[in-house]
């Protein structure tokens, strides 16, 4: 009794209501930092305490790491393990369920999961075999096609609709694209393959077509909870609806203002439709923010104020005081990096642990310069988002062998594996595959492939290795053996940088060590969706105190003491691709809202005023419109008082037309003409041309 009181007291009345409502549909819709995730954690604890067997609770989150973390916290509250609670992502859940129920729609439990790269390869293969890739045609490329197919599935729209709206220039190819799509579906089915979208699609189909499965699932998961519901799509909403058909005990939490995955088919309107999907929904709003200080919240509110469509309201906090967000106009990117590193060193001096500091950016490559600077300063960091271990070519090579062991009919993987052999080109690989296809046991058939002397040795080695691997059961030992085989190939194919790649293989091995089951290992490798939070499978680095560098997409749901948002310039954030469409621009704005609401105490908004463009040299970068729109009383400018001598030098130094300069009042500009009597004519962004006196103008060279 004592314990129950103590933890429920850590909630406000609205949160408590959500935690106490155990039955029926509940929607918690609330702004950033209002305790939505916390409410879910407490509710898990509460359910377990009420005697619900943990495995009857299903917690769906955006990454598996987030689920693990939430369950860890629930266990701490209860003083009792919540590990047996089923936690994961929609994709990992669907994968698990399809391994159990996939046979109902013709899939063996050993089906292969295609990641996005694999899917593109398959599409490419089919595109050629249908004769759609003749030179000279403007037929869409494989990544465009994959994106197109994925959008159709995730948005529940026809290909024609998507083409019409987003790729009108390809509309003339509609019949061919439809044919390719059907062919792709057929191919995957024939070879027991599923891409990410299929995981959702097929699980949905099982649920839809089999009422007995629905009934079983409703009994199995009596309580379903979903975090970050604003980033789900119609298919995920339908999956939840069908799984909960027997009881309707579903609680979802989310914030429409933080919806940032439209490019993957998510739709923030989904959250607003929840009550329609679940009649009788109890709607709970949380308005108090526990995360950030008022000045940070004021700025966040101002950002989202300008959004066209929004449901959640302004946030307030009871936390007193706080430092206004700081804007830093950096001369260029390396000045931005220097600034961030200096502030981080100061924060560390003040006792802020590095793990309480994050640097956020729109695109993974925006942090390259900073990464070098942090390394120079010996400041440890980890990076989330961007290319992951599993996406590297050499890791894919190794994984392809394992996939074959699991599903010998995965001819895409065969293709990759064969091409690694010396003397085997695409045509030979196809010939070998034709031979394998004709057999009911492709692995065995490999030994009877008629081989030319040029690649015979390689092929025999491969055959022996796969046969040996077949006899080993431990995942780790298999991988060890495989790496032994692969090492000489690696050294030949990637001779430029193979030592670094070898280290990656070791990381892979250290991951494998946690698994008993090969299929689980492969699924986990494939299943972390692209751009998801936190490289879930990267080797543990948690012990060390390190800074987080992250794309904003991957920072969802997290918080830090101090947050730096960098590269806030037009073309980078909002991204150049987004500015043409009102809808995408709105999404970028929500992304900025997500970024600023990650900060608890300190928020720095940084933007370099010049940058290098390939072919154009040094150019002026305009500050992001999201910054320019903010009322200036909501932030403070960071000023580094230039040393007197530096200023004098600047004033006397001979400026020349074309020089880039910075003026305390007008900001960045370009020298147009040097005039007599120490005067100078400068063009300032947003202010036009000004004629200034060099002695008083306090110009700085950029
Ligand atoms: P986001 O929208 O960013 O995902 P959220 O709504 O999920 O945010 P949480 O992460 O759950 O918010 O909570 C934000 C912070 O506020 C956390 O540090 C959490 O522990 C704290 N918090 C939430 N509710 C309370 C409360 N009632 N009392 C004290 N602290 C709270
Ligand atoms: Mg949250």
TrEMBL record:
The residues listed in the UniProt record as binding ATP, with positions renumbered to this chain, are 30-37
Q: What are the UvrD-like helicase ATP-binding domain coordinates in residue numbering?
A: 9-293
Q: Which CDD domains match?
A: DEXQc_UvrD
Show where the UvrD-like helicase C-terminal domain sits: 294-557
GO MF entries: 3'-5' DNA helicase activity; ATP binding; DNA binding; hydrolase activity
One GO cellular component term of this record is: cytosol
- Give EC number(s), comma-separated: 5.6.2.4
Q: What class of enzyme is it?
A: isomerase
> What's a single GO BP term from this record?
recombinational repair
Keyword tRNA-binding carried by entry: no
Report which reactions are catalysed by this protein: Couples ATP hydrolysis with the unwinding of duplex DNA by translocating in the 3'-5' direction; ATP + H2O = ADP + phosphate + H(+)
Keywords for this protein: ATP-binding, Helicase, Hydrolase, Isomerase, Nucleotide-binding
Could you say which protein family the record assigns here? Belongs to the helicase family. UvrD subfamily.
Please state what the protein is called. Answer: DNA 3'-5' helicase
Origin organism is Thermosulfurimonas marina
Source taxonomy: Bacteria, Pseudomonadati, Thermodesulfobacteriota, Thermodesulfobacteria, Thermodesulfobacteriales
